[in-house]
Write a structure and sequence with these properties.
alpha/beta; single chain; seven-stranded mixed beta sheet; Rossmann fold; 2 domains; 13 strands; four-stranded parallel beta sheet
Length: 335
């Protein structure tokens, strides 16, 4: 908003005004938040969900105020049915009152909008805007020669397949399947290394098991290179170095997966999971395997892994675009 010249009460000289009124989400504090909103007299109040803290009351209260602000609600997570504790009360989804009371809804995935529209006629009447998020990782500017130099510095022999894994290492991300994939490639006489762009310190039983497995297996001990925490530029460069990024999410990829978006923006080949599996999508340079189908992932790596595409060959979504799409929606609401 600042770079677009849209400055107002909460945004002066590029610095947003923070109102330190949310000490907790007790009902007493909800009243304090409402008073602060009314005093500020905004044109639009934008709520970001998921959260259970609002008690489903803030949005409905603002919605019934005479000459109150327009209320926009963003749903960032997949929606699910949640039966009410009282069988005669209609509350099919979490935060239903807030969603039903909004003047507009923003979703980050088309499937979220389809779910909402299937709930009730009331939901179908509320304007619903699809605004996907962007990646927080920039696009690497490494040249082909610079990529070779990074590989040399990492001690990776020529002809070795370079795979990357980016993100937190925990069970839902399926990192154990990455190790399985490395073993399958080794059995197929494919030399490969995996660069882990994240920390693997044995802080929980899952990570401890992974470290034990790596240390006790000569193939994995040689192939797994844990680079630890890196800044955003270094993450981009190491993704750009790889022939493939392997992201075997246990519950499948969805549009808010930052690691997937970061890899997608680099133009590298990605192996991930989805339900249903979609196979190789050439325009995206992504192979979508069934969750847990490690053989299919390994075969996809063998078939499609390659140096990254040029930046001009694929669209890169920016946060500027995200902001502009929000502004267009806000303007329509105020017309």
């Amino acid at each position: 908003m600042v770079t677009s010249g849209h400055q107002g009460t909460v945004c002066r000289d590029g610095n947003p005004t923070v109102l330190p009124v949310v000490h907790n989400w007790s009902l007493l504090n909800v009243a304090r938040v409402i008073r602060a909103i009314l005093k500020c007299k905004p044109d639009i109040v934008h709520f970001q969900f998921p959260t259970n803290g609002y008690f489903d009351v803030l949005v409905p209260i603002l919605g019934v105020l005479p000459k109150g602000p327009k209320v926009v609600v963003t749903m960032h997570e997949p929606l699910s049915v949640k039966p009410s504790r009282l069988p005669w009360v209609f509350r099919p989804i979490r935060n239903w009152l807030s969603i039903a009371s909004a003047d507009a809804i923003i979703v980050v995935a088309q499937s979220y909008a389809e779910f909402l529209h299937g709930v009730s006629e009331r939901m179908r009447r509320i304007p619903c805007e699809l605004i996907p998020i962007a990646s927080n990782i920039p696009v690497s500017q490494l040249s082909t020669e610079a990529v070779r130099e990074v590989r040399r510095q990492l001690g990776i022999p020529r002809g070795t397949l370079v795979l990357t894994y980016f993100g937190f290492v925990h069970a839902r991300k399926g990192f154990d399947q990455v190790l399985d994939l490395i073993k399958i490639l080794e059995q197929r006489k494919v030399a490969a290394v995996i660069l882990v762009l994240g920390e693997l310190l044995g802080r929980d039983p899952y990570q401890k098991d992974l470290l034990d497995r790596i240390s006790n297996d000569p193939v994995l001990r040689s192939a797994v290179k844990v680079l630890g925490y890196l800044d955003s530029d270094a993450i981009a460069d190491h993704l750009a170095v790889s022939d493939a990024c392997v992201l075997p999410f246990v519950d499948g990829v969805h549009p808010k997966r930052g690691s997937f978006l970061a890899a997608l923006d680099q133009g590298i080949f990605i192996v991930t999971t989805s339900d249903p599996p979609k196979g190789y999508i050439a325009d995206e340079n992504v192979y979508y395997a069934k969750q847990g189908d490690i053989d299919a992932m390994a075969l996809a790596v063998q078939r499609h892994a390659a140096p990254r595409r040029s930046a001009a060959s694929h669209p890169v979504r920016t946060w500027e675009a995200v902001a502009q799409e929000h502004l267009r929606l806000f303007k329509r609401l105020l017309q």
